[in-house]
Write a structure and sequence with these properties.
There is one protein chain. This protein has 171 residues and is an alpha+beta fold. Helix content is 29%, strand content 27%. It has five helices and eight strands; from the N terminus they run E-H-E-E-E-H-E-H-E-H-E-H-E. The strands form three sheets. It has a four-stranded antiparallel β-sheet with strand order 2-1-5-8. Strands 3-4 form a two-stranded antiparallel sheet. The chain has a two-stranded parallel sheet with strand order 6-7. The chain is globular, with a radius of gyration of 15 Å. 35% of the residues are buried. The mean pLDDT is 93.
């Protein structure tokens, strides 16, 4: 058995504040990591610190410039046990996204449609929750079976264990 990690965060950016305002949920962003130290987190979001329109597939680190600027980022880290076959499949799925990162875009339109409980699927466009949900489904780890996946849905994955709650930079 192997362990994977789902990281729910609230950064305090304008976008995260808007998401929180409409959803009333404490966390607004989701990432996935293969290691307990969360040295690398995979998600969809902004590629730089300040430009919200330059966004897509990202491989984040907790020591990046982004988290140094937004150093009060709060998080919950979930640990999930998966069998070796699914873990290897997850690695392949993440590699596929990383190797083809230039064809993927952040779904800004989809983000705002979700506020009104609407969806409009566009090929190669994702928001963070949809991306992590898709990765889990492709790796046959978990299928949310929902049109709109929200950050709090990740807390409902069976056999997850909260291993940390607090400031990301203090983990």
């Amino acid at each position: 058995m192997k362990k994977i990690y789902i990281i729910l965060t609230y950064t305090g950016t304008i976008t995260s504040k808007l998401v929180r305002l409409f959803t009333k949920y404490e966390y607004s962003h989701v990432s996935i990591s293969l290691d307990k130290n969360i040295d690398y987190m995979y998600s969809f979001g902004r590629k730089g610190v300040h430009n919200i329109f330059n966004a897509g597939f990202i491989k984040e680190t907790k020591n990046s410039k982004f988290f140094k600027v937004f150093n009060k980022t709060k998080c919950i880290i979930l640990e999930i046990l998966v069998d070796n076959k699914k873990y290897k499949k997850l690695i392949k799925v993440l590699k596929k996204y990383e190797d083809n990162k230039d064809i993927y875009r952040y779904d800004t339109i989809g983000l705002f449609l979700r506020i009104f409980k609407l969806t409009h699927k566009r090929k190669n466009y994702f928001v963070c929750t949809e991306f992590v949900g898709s990765v889990l489904k492709e790796a046959e780890i978990y299928d949310f079976n929902k049109k709109i996946i929200k950050p709090y849905h990740f807390l409902n994955i069976p056999n997850n264990k909260i291993i940390y709650k607090g400031k990301l930079l203090e983990y």
